[in-house]
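HOLO CASE FILE
Compound: ribose-5-phosphate
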Amino acid sequence: MNKIIDANKTAIFNLSSSKNLAKSVAKTLDIEVSGLELKRFLDGEIYLRLLETVRNKHVFIIHSINSPVNENLMEILILVDALKRASAKEITAIIPYLGYARQDRLSKGREPITSKLVADLLEKAGINRLITFDIHSNQIQGFFNIPTDNIRTLGYLTTAISKAYDLSNAVVLSPDFGSIKRAKVVAKRLGLPIVIVDKRREQQNNVEIDNIIGNLDGKDVLIVDDMIDTGNTLKKTLQLIHEKCNNIYIAATHGVFSLDQTKYQNYDEYFNEFSKIGVKKIFITNSIEQKALSHEILEVLDLSSQIAEVIRLVSGKHGALSDFFNKEWN
Ligand code: R5P
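Model generated. Tokens follow.
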């Protein structure tokens, strides 16, 4: 039987952050994850060594740059350096969650643009192609001078929600003007009306609603975002509107879930607060591995089939991903 990909020409590596995802992708492709020795010197420096040859191979690294962000960033840079020095033919970095992407422009001045810096670092280290999921903003693709593909999961997430719940009385809520585009795509896809919350931030922690454009009364609500980090953005909006509406569902690609320990002692408290303001389910993907996290409000969708398909296409004869974008999950 023909193998899906040729292990003599292709290798898959993972590092510390996306181990289960990489394992499951490799299993789908009927290939082993390549061996790597990875450890820290006593002062924290990273040491790694490839345990097999990559000479003339197309190497795929599956690794998200999530917390601990700086450790995970250094790990991938160091692996890419080792791969290049070991004569890998091509290096494709599959970074489901690209950390540092949120700092993509100057907002107050005298600040860095870390997403450009990370792009430069990855390129300089030697990646030839980047594949990522729901990048924070489209312009980041332009920070790379190598092929950069951004795979959207909106279709995958919203299909899963509409299969699990009756959305016939739902509206898609855009929690601010910045999210209208994303909300419109989802509303069109599901044939639902859109509601826009026009809010203003009086001070850092004080949000006021000027207007709600559209009808929320008695409706189920679907909110789509690229990520949930502290959860503050969504919680603050929902605190102001949840009494008007019925069930609330949230879909976000990246579950960053940073725990502000001045507010919550543990993740139960963090997620219970979502439940208290009417959230029935939060759908996320495993772009970030939710290691010790399990809460009944969370539904984690697996990206391994998509990533396996990406590797199959990219390592194929033409290396083109165009077929991928015709799949039903887009
Ligand atoms: C903002 O631009 C993003 O799309 C998210 O809404 C934001 O990063 C979420 O952060 P947090 O959960 O910390 O409010």
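CASE NOTES: The CA atoms of residues 171 and 192 lie 6 Å apart. The pocket of ribose-5-phosphate is lined by residues 225-233 (CB under 6 Å).
CLOSED: yes
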